[in-house]
Design goal:
Strand order of the largest sheet: 1-5-4-3-2-6-7-8
Number of strands: 8
Structural class: alpha/beta
């Protein structure tokens, strides 16, 4: 890892999706992250084309730390066009990988790194995805880790939303309309005063009961 992000931050959301998002997907990704800025969230993604790039850029624009999980060593950036973006992420976030430097690019490493994207976050948000793709792999992994999975719905005729709609239909993801839905489902909008505290048990005990209780 290199960068300045706190990898043990209290609130971490992974944002994943297609490498070819629609204007709707990119706009909603930016809006959701912008609206999450008040919650002090860290955004994790894969620094790939499409939704990943949109998520990292929106995070930096909103002043949120963002971490890219790479499928290669820290000595390179793929895709190369994201090199400038990766440099900015080191100033507020960072880059993380399990691969040594000089590791050659391998298509099998990209789905493999998705388990880290899912595992280091409290929840995974799928912006747009077809019925097959890395985003759905990440969602399945997050479900296997008993992490929350959220999906942005789309029109039933839109191919780029078919994967999200399928996740929601199969109860593998919760439908998300806005950042408030995420905060509600994660319990972030609860006031501390509303948290129930266990009352003390056995407030009135005789001497014999006290001995039993203390024992």
């Amino acid at each position: 890892f290199k960068g300045n992000a706190n990898l043990s931050q209290q609130r971490i959301i992974s944002v994943v999706g297609t490498r070819m998002p629609t204007d709707y997907g990119k706009a909603m990704c930016e809006q959701l992250i912008r609206d999450l800025a008040e919650e002090g969230v860290m955004i994790v993604s894969g620094l790939a084309y499409g939704v990943d790039t949109a998520a990292h850029r929106a995070s930096l624009a909103a002043g949120l730390p963002t971490v890219g999980v790479l499928a290669h060593g820290l000595d390179q950036v793929y895709p190369y066009v994201n090199r400038a973006l990766a440099e900015k992420m080191l100033e507020n976030g960072g880059l993380l990988t399990e691969f040594m430097s000089r590791t050659k690019l391998n298509r099998d490493y990209f789905p493999r790194r998705n388990r880290i994207i899912a595992g280091m976050a409290d929840a995974t948000l799928v912006i747009e995805s077809a019925t097959k793709g890395g985003a759905l792999i990440t969602a399945d992994i997050a479900n296997s880790y008993n992490r929350d999975v959220f999906a942005l719905p789309g029109r039933v005729t839109d191919e780029k939303s078919s994967g999200c709609n399928e996740l929601i239909k199969a109860n593998k993801a919760s439908l998300i309309r806005n950042a408030n839905d995420i905060c509600y489902l994660m319990g972030w909008d609860q006031s501390p005063q509303l948290v129930h505290i266990q009352q003390k048990l056995f407030t009135e005990m005789n001497e014999e009961e006290k001995k039993v209780f203390e024992f």
